[in-house]
Backbone:
């Protein structure tokens, strides 16, 4: 499974500087899970913070763009 020769592709690593909401909350929740051997009963506080942050993000009206590589492939299909 590799890429076809001549196919368009953009490395998503270049877009790493984009805003990543709720990253701190997610990391603290995952760290808590790792420390408690995946027992989420001990991580209720972190889980609530993450849920609150995600709920606040979903309230924003933003359009989903999807993967940039998906759109490049879709546009490339039209050229053939």
Residues:
């Amino acid at each position: 499974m590799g890429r076809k020769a001549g196919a368009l592709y953009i490395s998503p690593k270049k877009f790493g500087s984009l805003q990543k909401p709720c990253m701190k909350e997610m990391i603290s929740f995952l760290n808590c899970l790792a420390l408690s051997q995946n027992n989420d009963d001990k991580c209720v506080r972190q889980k609530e913070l993450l849920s609150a942050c995600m709920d606040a993000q979903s309230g924003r009206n933003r359009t989903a763009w999807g993967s940039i590589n998906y759109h490049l492939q879709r546009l490339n299909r039209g050229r053939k």
In short: The first helix runs from residue 23 to 35. The CA atoms of residues 10 and 69 lie 6 Å apart.
